[in-house]
Design goal:
Blueprint lengths: L13 H19 L12 H6 L38 E11 L4 E2 L5 E2 L4 E6 L16 E4 L2 E6 L7 E4 L11 E5 L9 H7 L4 H6 L13
Antiparallel strand pairs: 1-4, 1-8, 2-3, 4-7, 5-6, 6-7
């Protein structure tokens, strides 16, 4: 027997309590009729973090399994909740080149560089799950510093502003997002830059991206 909270990540828990009370009543009816469900669950990550009464014999640890907060605005950040982000996304620089001030970058020339700089082409795009509408408050971490996104995300690549003094070179590995401990962008920062939620950032990564599951 199972159900799902509609508002588990909201500060006002009154509706969630109504749902839980109804769930308990229905469970009691089943038990009174000699029906004992093997598995009983209603708690998602948000409920698991805020309401121990919602624990049954299973807890559906969804976004929490990624070490992410279900809602940074209402429940606090991963750190506040004692969670550690577990997913890191990496790619490579396909090309590094210098461009002059005034150069336009990307489809539609939506980005114009204000000064001479180096740009890097990253080997991942919206076909791999990078949100096309991401703004320049996200980017990659490479050669020891952040490089913000420049222009629109394309199908198979996107461009970042490395800065004129960057030591990054073609073939270098970049970190698109991680836990932030080394200075890289976080999943929550990418979500904010794409006007979406962290759930979408981690679940939309496409099948072309290899998965590696570290042990220990």
């Amino acid at each position: 027997m199972w159900s799902h909270f509609a508002r588990a990540d909201e500060p006002d828990q009154s509706f969630n309590q109504q749902q839980l009370d109804t769930f308990h009543k229905r469970l009691a009816i089943l038990i009174s009729q000699g029906i004992n469900p093997q598995f009983v669950h209603i708690a998602n990550s948000a409920a698991a973090l805020t309401n121990k009464d919602s624990y049954k014999n299973i807890v559906r640890w969804g976004i929490g399994l990624y070490g992410l907060s279900p809602d940074v605005n209402t429940l606090g950040s991963s750190g506040t909740l004692n969670l550690k982000p577990a997913m890191k996304l990496k790619a490579k620089l396909h090309l590094v080149k210098e461009v002059e001030a005034g150069a336009q970058v990307g489809y539609g020339g939506t980005a114009t560089v204000n000064a001479n700089t180096k740009i890097g082409v990253v080997t991942m795009g919206y076909a791999d799950g990078i949100p096309r509408n991401t703004n320049n408050s996200a980017g990659v971490f490479v050669a020891g510093k952040r490089a913000p996104l420049l222009g629109r995300v394309s199908m198979d690549q996107f461009v970042v502003d490395l800065g004129l003094q960057s030591t990054a070179k073609t073939g270098d590995e970049v970190v698109i997002f991680g836990d932030g401990s080394a200075g890289e962008y976080t999943i929550d920062e990418w979500a904010s830059a794409a006007s979406t939620i962290n759930y979408e950032i981690v679940t939309r990564i496409g099948p072309r991206v290899p998965r590696i599951y570290p042990r220990g």
